[in-house]
């Protein structure tokens, strides 16, 4: 579903809409949709529903590297 053109276009429109409210240095310039749900049982969220950044970074190291290279 995340590769479907309609879904991709919708996310592009939403990012563009909200970027309008931010300064140039605050805007989202690169992003990638991922197929995984970030939930507590999947290990991506803590019991207080905070993102576990080290887990995200470990699981998506390759994608993060592509975004910033």
Low-confidence stretches: none
The outline comes out as: globular
Largest sheet: none
Distance between the termini: 26 Å
Cα-atom Rg, whole angstroms?
Answer: 14 Å
Number of helices: 3
| β-strand amount | under 5%
Number of strands: 0
Order of helices and strands: HHH
Tell me the structural class: mainly alpha
Number of individual domains: 2
Overview in brief:
With 69 residues, the chain is an all-alpha fold. The chain has 2 domains: 1-32; 34-69, no CATH class. The chain has helices at residues 5-19, 53-59, 61-68.
Provide the fold topology.
Layout: H1 5-19, H2 53-59, H3 61-68
Characterization of this structure:
This protein is an all-alpha fold and 69 residues long. It folds into two domains: 1-32; 34-69, no CATH class. The chain contains three helices and no strands. It has helices at residues 5-19, 53-59, 61-68. The radius of gyration is 14 Å and the shape is globular. The chain starts with a helix and ends with a helix.
